[in-house]
Amino acid sequence: MSDFLYRTKGDKVIWTIVIFLSVVSLLAVYSATGSLAYRERGGHTEYYLLKQLMVLVLGLLIIYFAHRVNYTIYSRVAQIGFLISIPLLVYTLAFGSHINEASRWIRLPIINLTFQTSDVAKLAIFMYVSRQLSKKQHVINDLKKGFLPIIIPVGVICVLIMPANMSTALLLGASCMILCFIGRVPVKFLVSMVVLSLATILLIIMLAQIFGFKMRTETWGKRIEHFFNKDDAETPYQVQQANIAIAGGGLLGKGPGNSTQRNFLPHAYSDYIFATIIEEYGIFGAFLILTAYMILLLRCIRIYRKCPYAFGAFLAVGLSVTLVIQALTNMAVNVGVFPVTGVTLPMVSMGGSSVIFTSLAIGIILSVARNVEEMEGKQAEKERIAKAMAAGEYYGDEEEEEEEEE
């Protein structure tokens, strides 16, 4: 165990945040799924708790092993991941499992498990964009040589995700734009791409309605209409129940396991888990979770500033930006600031593939942090030896070993 802890490197603050969010996840999922497990599992109220515990333990193991890998290897994997993502997304659109009127999952044979292919695509495209940004810094101001080779793959992935999951496609596109901005892409290119993206979305929606493509355009329209229409009679059921849960939470909440709206709130364990947390832990608990994500972003910005290599810097900040944007979006939906979406709260909502790929992303961030930490240690050792030599106090490795033996 001591050897395991000794080999655990990287940013200790990020590790602490991961453990904190995992504990919050167990408490919130257990509370939100108690009644569901009792009904569906014959009284075994701990079923989903144990399932989430196993997923989180697997996630922690993935973080550990991913952070032990040199992050430069992920640069080599990026292109392969991007190329694999395209047929996976196409297969999902054509043959994916339909859940809540959306084809977002594919079912693995034999083991009979489902996972969201968009999770694979998100991780792959961020590694790919980070790789491309690091390699094209010398031509980043050139539209054809610098910007287009970076943004076209992003557009392809977003278009393939959009028919089944518009919110994920928009968040992915926005996160990639932010990463490109950090990577010194000219603002005029980014603005032009935003305008072109909006025009493309409108065109795809029009074509879908004309030719009858399988897209959730009606659902998107209703969600946006209900968001801007403040008539209580038109407010979606899940929004009403989330508002009741938040109003009942107050400053300190009702206490762990004392939520009442968990029995009425749809997806209280995933999409609306933040509303459940506010009801049980109040505004104070919600503030702690928001602070945890903000600290995660700040620590990753610190890694970005300290990493001497472009790929590692872009990788750390890019992955953190997408995790924090997803978290903020989930919170905004829960409190009624954004229209209803199917975005989960990273490392907190109950899930399988989402927790696994979020863990992999955090492991990659910690891999960059570990390498930065090791380089700082070597630099500090060189400076110590240089000062000792200047003061005449350094006698070489052999004499140091003799002194240690004595």
From TrEMBL:
PANTHER family: CELL CYCLE PROTEIN, PEPTIDOGLYCAN GLYCOSYLTRANSFERASE FTSW-RELATED. InterPro entries: FtsW/RodA. Belongs to the SEDS family. FtsW subfamily. The chain crosses the membrane at residues 13-36, 48-67, 73-96, 150-182, 189-211, 272-297, 309-328, 348-369. GO terms for cellular component: cell division site; plasma membrane. It comes from Chitinophaga agrisoli. Its main location: membrane. It is found in: Membrane. The keyword Cell cycle applies. It catalyses: [GlcNAc-(1->4)-Mur2Ac(oyl-L-Ala-gamma-D-Glu-L-Lys-D-Ala-D-Ala)](n)-di-trans,octa-cis-undecaprenyl diphosphate + beta-D-GlcNAc-(1->4)-Mur2Ac(oyl-L-Ala-gamma-D-Glu-L-Lys-D-Ala-D-Ala)-di-trans,octa-cis-undecaprenyl diphosphate = [GlcNAc-(1->4)-Mur2Ac(oyl-L-Ala-gamma-D-Glu-L-Lys-D-Ala-D-Ala)](n+1)-di-trans,octa-cis-undecaprenyl diphosphate + di-trans,octa-cis-undecaprenyl diphosphate + H(+). This is Probable peptidoglycan glycosyltransferase FtsW. It is a multi-pass membrane protein. GO terms for biological process: cell division; peptidoglycan biosynthetic process; regulation of cell shape. Keywords: Cell cycle, Cell division, Cell shape, Glycosyltransferase, Membrane, Peptidoglycan synthesis, Transferase, Transmembrane, Transmembrane helix. One of its GO terms (molecular function) is lipid-linked peptidoglycan transporter activity. Its EC number is 2.4.99.28.
